[in-house]
Amino acid sequence: MFAIFQRHPRFAITCGLGLLCLILLQTSGPSDPFGPRLRGLYRNGAPPGGDVEVAWRLSQSERVYQNMLRDRKKLIQKFGPTKNDILPWPKNREFYTLWDFFIPAFNCPHETQRVGILGDGGKWMCGLSRLQDKKGCTIYSFGINDESSFEAGLLELTQHCEVWGYDFSVKNFGPEIRNIPNLAARSHFKAWGLAGEDNPNGTPPMYTLQSLMKMNGHKFIDILKIDIEGYEFPALRSLIEYSRKHNQPLPFGQLQLEIHADRMPGVKDEKKVFREFLEWWESLEDAGLRPFWTEPNLIFVNINLGIQPALAEYSFINIKADHDVLH
């Protein structure tokens, strides 16, 4: 092969590219959402690398993720044998916790980086370089708690992104934004909350994400951060139902979410936690969300010694919407 390359380099390169395209087509099955995109790129003569490489990485990540879903069923059978029999944090020395069933098996097709302060407050991002120069870049952040290093980091690492922040427990962004004039100029804040239904006359006022986006004139959010002490369950359930009803993908590119598994509204019986959590998580997966990173909140466990490890940070990519991170 090396001799052929020396004598006929163009021929060897052409053959290599053809072989790569053949592999790409064969490895994308009929259920692969990125298969049609790969085949379209090949038919249109797209050059190697770039969008072809990203589409191939996404296709392979989805195959890995589907394998993980089968492994999840096996783990439920091992410790259940049904979802109704699983305790989120077993006390009989079983070797699992809730989070072992929900691993971040999807890979970001670009660079990953942690933005914000080390410790509590920072979040893991996928392909932030894809948004670095994007005009109209939109960030929503729910749950500020006077610590805005994550939001400030996003603004500092991008040219045109603006952030809309909501938190009824504080009056503004943290000092990382409000004390920096050029960052404050790209920020917008309301002391409102995110919920599963609108209650504008409540104390505090509460809104669904779809209502806030309509009020702000936004069709799509590039980065969505949610840390709202259990309200994430009804808020995301409402958004998924709305999107399904209107036959639309979820209106954001990636989601940075802290999950409070011990605060699911209406779930008081520990024996029902796993079943309810699984059904909620599967609704996220069905809507196209794929976790690519997780970080357990060990600070919470350390402060409250002996408490269950019920808090975890997850970062998701939305694979059903067309956005910059998928290119």
Major sheet: arrangement of strands: 5-4-3-8-9-11-10
The average pLDDT value, as a whole number, equals 90
How does the overall form come out from the CA principal axes? globular
Helix and strand pattern: HHHHEEEHEHHEEEHEHEHEHE
Strands, total number: 11
Walk me through the structure.
- This protein has 327 residues and is an alpha/beta fold.
- It has eleven helices and eleven strands.
- Strands 5-4-3-8-9-11-10 form a seven-stranded mixed β-sheet, covered by helices on one side. A two-stranded antiparallel ribbon has the order 1-2.
- Helix 9 (232-245) links the parallel strand 8 (221-226) and strand 9.
- Helix 3 packs antiparallel against helix 4 (50-79).
- The two termini are 33 Å apart.
- The mean pLDDT is 90.
Notable traits:
alpha/beta; 7-stranded mixed sheet; single chain; globular; 327 residues; two-stranded antiparallel ribbon
What's the short version?
The chain is of the alpha/beta class and 327 residues long.
List the helices and strands and how they pair.
Layout: H1 2-7, H2 9-26, H3 35-43, H4 50-79, E1 112-115, E2 123-126, E3 138-142, H5 149-157, E4 162-166, H6 175-178, H7 181-184, E5 187-190, E6 193-194, E7 206-207, H8 209-216, E8 221-226, H9 232-245, E9 252-260, H10 270-286, E10 289-296, H11 298-303, E11 311-318
Parallel strand pairs: 3-4, 3-8, 4-5, 6-7, 8-9
Antiparallel strand pairs: 1-2, 9-11, 10-11
Helix pairs in contact: 3-4
